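Before the break, one more example. Copy the sequence into your notebook; we will annotate it together after we see the structure.
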Amino acid sequence: MVLRGYFTKSASKTLTPSIRVSLIAILVALSVSSNYALVWIPNVKFMDLLVFVAGLIAGPLDGAIVGALSWIVYGFLNPYGWVPTILIATALAETIYGILGGF
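Here is what the structure looks like once it is written out:
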């Protein structure tokens, strides 16, 4: 992979704080908007892929942050409604994709 050679496992340490925050915000916005765009197609979503890519690019901590924030935003504004226990469970489960992407 081209990105893997450029962004090493310590990429989150080499990125400046403003670039890290911008990268997290952009990836959260992309994952949430892609989920809304595909909400009418059952079982098709790119959120998990984008969270995994966030972990791959920026490291496991940033991937976990992107995963948790993506589900918190999507869960509160979900067109099908939200349940607090499901929101917490899915937000924590989504962090696994970001963490695994960073390793």
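The radius of gyration is 14 Å. DSSP finds six helices and no strands in the chain. Try to locate both features in your own notes.
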